[in-house]
Amino acid sequence: MNSEESIKFLLEQKEAIVNLPDKRRSPQFDKWKRRTRLIIEKVFSNGSLHLKEFDGIRYSLSVFSLSTPEESFQRVYMRGLEDAMGLIETCIEEIKDFGLDESEQEVGGNNMGENIQQVRKANKIFISHSSEDSHFGKAIVQLLRGLGLKRDQIVFTSDDDYGIPLDDNIFEYLKKQITNGVYILYLLSDNYYDSVACLNEMGAAWIVQNQYTIIGIPGFQFSNTKFSGGAIDPRKIGFTMDNTKRVIEFKNNILNQFDLSIDEMDWMEVYKKYCDTVEGLCKHK
Hints:
Blueprint: H1 3-17, H2 27-44, H3 49-55, H4 70-98, H5 112-118, E1 125-128, H6 134-147, E2 154-155, H7 170-179, E3 183-188, H8 190-193, H9 196-208, E4 212-216, H10 225-228, E5 239-240, H11 244-257, H12 264-283
Parallel strand pairs: 1-2, 1-3, 3-4, 4-5
Helix pairs in contact: 1-2, 1-4, 2-3, 6-12, 7-9
């Protein structure tokens, strides 16, 4: 992929902004956002400052209530589009002025269109957890369903509705899910690190290099030596279930990963229910 191709793709995304509907969280917006993010990732590499800046753009309010006026949501949405347009323009100017650093570009084919088609997102989530923490895992399942994931997109072995199909071998089934690139949520606790089965799951996923998110049950310390000495990269940022700000970031990551969208009012109901559930679990912990 050369500079000319990169500029072409970025220009297309910039021009597409003016044709997006004014309605926030529309399917057209979600499609535009996913493609723009992918193009920036392919042009500048995963982990680049450009990609981090794009991921940091807000299109909706992080905190709101039932009395929040619609114009407040709309104002943040339009400002987000303006910020995105400015970032794309900056990316184009940098390429024109300095060209592309080949060492920072994604390794793969030379054709940008082919690269975009080759990107494969996970279509399932596996919640790796200790059975002792199943009540916390159920709260995560509740949150994921509220975001729009279907029942068959979640593997949670402590609930038959999301568990191993009848007559399947549990170890072979989990091995197949991990090998197929399932997205993993590690629900960490002292119970997790005391479980041989959990550590085997972690090791298998580490070998395959699955995408993952680290979640600690309330009270779990990421300074725990079991965590820092384990297979999971201790430099990767995780969060505990009662960290409300990080839960919102987690929501955004899941929506992006699984091509989902949720109305802000619906999200507020899902979020409140989740927070109430976690608070109740903490009281009875």
